[in-house]
């Protein structure tokens, strides 16, 4: 086991300075910044320069000494992800360059500081713009959406099919798609990506991602393959074409889940009705439906039916035809987590404020009440260790979930120390890693719908 892996496994232990230095000495193409340099570049990390805050910590706009703008991501001291993931991110992307991937300039690992310095992207993320309040007032015309879908597909195809060993991003979502000045999409945040050796299906003990984008087999069984990214990408494509978030609990029941809507419209041969009304009909209907169908294909229950990213690119460009007969009902994690049932029963008081449309799931030690956050505008669902209807048991700290009968009840076991939901109705190829008996969902499912 390399030192690097060793560091990653010891997520919560801070490695010594010399360990970090030794590890970094083997990484090329990344400039080491001093903390002082970054303080100067960000005006002492001033509030005015803060451009956002994600799960890792705040992000600041900075002007480097060479005059270039940069995004400085400061790992929060509280962050449980810590050094392991920090080094993962550096290691993953230091050698990788592609038009549709965010460029890492460098990092700072002075004392307790863990900071990443990226190329600054002017036009925020798709979550802020297309799906958010759009501060830059960007017009997402049909050609722009086409270019964004194709660009993200190419970036991901590069990670999956060209980089050796391939890289699973693990957190493809709208907030991780940043837009350059000319709206070229750039995939950001490789902190969750891991190199996996060829011929191996990597089963992670740590599940991180975003609920609405999470492939159920990854969220539930921790079964991580390239197909998990492809699932997330499929959700993203449908969001881009429709201009809607994957989950919106403010909508009436039956309209809250975008993939479900897409499937229903597809069945009625009315898929074109999902295309963003703000385009005012200015789009190529055949092409838009093709993109939506690719989204449906990418989110199939059966992993083998999800196309590779290279195939997706060819489908987008029309080089490869889509066989409509292969499109079956997409699978949603909410089918398994009982979210819909709860949404129906308890919408505002249990899932958070009525203004929230996002769903965040965190594994926690809370009871079913903890599914909601009364203060946040986001909906936070916590997989519980104390609720028999959720993931956890009252005594166990390990949560083993195997897909069961698609009912929330089936996920919980109040008697066992581990919660095991076994894949009963599902085909082994789509969900289960029958050999991996300990696919533990032991840490946070972070999400943002
Ligand atoms: N390279 C960059 N250029 C410009 N803005 C950036 C850059 N990287 C991040 N941002 C902005 O900083 C904010 C926080 O990003 P960050 O990646 O930390 O969180 P996130 O993507 O919203 O959530 P998560 O932690 O789940 O990835 C986002 O609004 C994003 O648009
Ligand atoms: Mg991000």
From TrEMBL:
Keywords from the UniProt entry: ATP-binding, Glycoprotein, Kinase, Membrane, Nucleotide-binding, Phosphoprotein, Receptor, Repeat, Serine/threonine-protein kinase, Signal, Transferase, Transmembrane, Transmembrane helix
GO molecular function: ATP binding; protein serine/threonine kinase activity
Name of the protein described by the UniProt record: Protein kinase domain-containing protein
Record-linked PROSITE patterns: PROTEIN_KINASE_DOM, PROTEIN_KINASE_ST
Location within or outside the cell: Membrane
CDD domains: STKc_IRAK
Pfam family, one: PK_Tyr_Ser-Thr
Cellular component terms (Gene Ontology): membrane
Membrane topology summary: Single-pass membrane protein
UniProt biased composition (Low complexity): 347-357, 367-377, 387-397, 407-417, 424-437
Domain Protein kinase span(s) in chain numbering: 45-332
Residue ranges of the region described as Disordered: 344-449
Biased composition (Polar residues): 438-449
């Amino acid at each position: 086991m390399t030192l690097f892996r060793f560091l990653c496994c010891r997520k919560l232990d801070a490695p010594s300075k010399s360990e970090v230095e030794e590890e970094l000495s083997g990484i090329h193409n990344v400039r080491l910044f001093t903390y002082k340099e970054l303080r100067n570049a960000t005006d002492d990390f001033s509030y005015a320069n803060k451009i956002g805050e994600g799960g890792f910590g705040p992000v600041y706009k900075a002007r480097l000494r060479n005059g270039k703008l940069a995004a400085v991501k400061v790992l929060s001291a509280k962050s449980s992800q810590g050094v392991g993931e920090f080094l993962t991110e550096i290691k993953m992307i230091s050698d990788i360059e592609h038009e549709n991937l965010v460029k890492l300039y460098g990092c700072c690992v002075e004392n307790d500081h863990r900071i990443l310095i990226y190329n600054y992207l002017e036009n925020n993320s798709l979550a802020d713009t297309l799906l958010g309040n759009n501060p830059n007032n960007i017009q997402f015309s049909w050609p722009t959406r086409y270019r964004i879908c194709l660009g993200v597909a190419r970036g991901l195809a590069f990670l999956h099919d060209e980089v050796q060993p391939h890289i699973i991003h693990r957190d493809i979502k709208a907030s991780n798609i940043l837009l350059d000045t000319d709206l070229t999409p750039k995939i950001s945040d490789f902190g969750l990506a891991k190199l996996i050796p060829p011929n191996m299906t990597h089963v992670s003990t740590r599940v991180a991602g975003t609920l609405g984008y999470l492939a159920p087999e990854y969220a539930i069984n921790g079964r991580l393959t390239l197909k998990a990214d492809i699932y997330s990408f499929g959700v993203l494509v449908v969001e881009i074409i429709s201009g809607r978030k994957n989950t919106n609990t403010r909508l009436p029941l039956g309209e809250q889940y975008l993939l479900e809507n897409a499937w229903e419209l597809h069945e009625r041969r009315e898929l074109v009705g999902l295309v963003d009304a703000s385009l005012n009909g200015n789009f190529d209907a055949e092409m838009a439906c093709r993109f939506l169908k690719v989204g449906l294909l990418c989110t199939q229950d059966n992993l083998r039916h999800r196309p590779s990213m290279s195939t997706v690119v060819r489908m987008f460009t029309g080089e490869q035809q889509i066989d409509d007969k292969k499109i079956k009902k997409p699978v949603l994690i909410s089918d398994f987590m009982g979210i819909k049932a709860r949404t129906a029963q308890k919408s505002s008081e249990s899932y958070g404020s009525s203004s929230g449309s996002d769903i965040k799931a965190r594994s926690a030690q809370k009871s079913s009440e903890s599914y909601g956050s009364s203060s946040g505008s986001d909906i936070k669902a916590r997989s519980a260790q104390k609720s028999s209807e959720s993931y956890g048991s009252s005594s166990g700290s390990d949560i083993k979930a195997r897909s069961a009968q698609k009912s929330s009840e089936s996920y919980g076991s109040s008697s066992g120390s581990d919660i095991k939901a076994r894949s009963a109705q599902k085909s082994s190829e789509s969900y289960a890693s029958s050999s991996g008996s300990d696919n533990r969902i032991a840490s946070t499912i972070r999400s943002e719908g």
